[in-house]
Design brief:
By secondary structure, this protein is an alpha+beta fold. It has one domain (3-163): Gcn5-related N-acetyltransferase (GNAT) (Aminopeptidase, 3-Layer(aba) Sandwich). The protein is built from four helices and seven strands. Strands 1-2-3-4-5-7-6 form a seven-stranded mixed sheet. Strand 2 (49-53) and strand 3 form a beta hairpin. The chain is globular and about 40 Å long.
């Protein structure tokens, strides 16, 4: 059984290490390096922020939301980030984290979650679909990759969205 709990500042080294592992794949983000904790923390909503733990209490993954805009009208919209440690991938942990993030976002009053996923990352696209996200379209050649196996190539990003069925939209 996977144990989840809220992310705390003491998780920073593990969270940033897992983020760096994801970055190294070249299929997770345009970012080329994990930020320091201060910048990571400033770029995420206060809640929900989750970590998954192994049987010994070690962090195996994390999930958090970033604001999509500073404008108040977008206060109920968050952009999803889910990262799983290399050693824990392929076991369904990402889906567990994402579903818990969805549930936590609704408890916080968010009505829309967004995700931008590299088109080649079919496992992540499938995971988001399993958690109620729909494909909105593809942003072709959104950015030029600066690192990893696709360095120098323009990347297509699949835009996905999940509208809450719990938090009402009038």
């Amino acid at each position: 059984m996977t144990k989840l709990r809220p992310m705390t500042p003491t998780d920073a080294p593990a969270v940033l290490a897992i983020y760096a592992e994801g970055i190294a794949t070249g299929h997770a983000t345009f970012e080329s390096a994990a930020p320091d904790w201060v910048h990571f923390d400033e770029g995420k909503l206060a809640a929900p922020r989750l970590v998954s733990l192994d049987g010994e209490g070690g962090v195996t993954g994390w999930a958090a939301l970033s604001p999509v805009s500073s404008r108040c009208v977008y206060g109920g919209v968050g952009e999803v980030s889910v990262y799983v440690a290399e050693a824990a991938r392929g076991k369904g942990l990402g889906r567990i984290l994402l579903q818990a993030l969805v549930d936590g976002s609704e408890a916080e009053g968010l009505w829309t979650l967004t995700a931008g996923i590299f088109a080649e990352n079919t496992a992540s696209i499938r995971m988001h679909e399993q958690c109620g996200f729909e494909r909105l379209g593809v942003r072709c050649g959104l950015g030029k990759m600066g690192h990893g196996p696709m360095a120098g190539r323009w990347r297509d990003v699949v835009q996905m969205e999940r509208r809450s069925t719990v938090v009402g939209i009038d």
